[in-house]
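Progress against Task 2.4 (sequence-to-structure conversion) is shown through the following example record, which the project officer requested during the mid-term review.
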Amino acid sequence: MRNTSSWVPEILYEENSDGSSSNIPFVMVPDGEDMPSLLYIFESRDTGEFEPGLDGEDVPVSQWDLHQYADLLVLKSKLSIDDYNKVRIALGLQTLEEAVEAGRKITSNVKNNLET
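C-alpha cells generated for the chain above:
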C-alpha cells in the first residue's frame, strides 16, 4: 500500500559505542510507506573559490551535482536477466550468476570452518 503523504527518506548511519559510524547507511521507513525505488542525493564539493556573503565576508563556493541511486531489487524484478547483468557490470559488480557462485563458496567455507 503506497501512502501519498510527503514523507521524505532520511539517510542515517548507526553510531558505534566508540563514536565511529557504520559504513552502511539505513533508512527508517514509517508504517504505511515504502522504501523508495530511487534516491536522489546531491554531491557537494568545494571549488576553492569564494564569493562575498551578506555581510561582505568570504563564503566558499560549492559545486553541486545531483546523483540518482536505484534499488537493484526493483531493477531485477523489471528487467530481463541479460539487461540486469548489463546494469550490474556497468556498476562494477559481477553478473548475478557469478555473485551467486561466489556467495556459495563463501557459505561453504564458513560451514567448513565451523565444522572443523
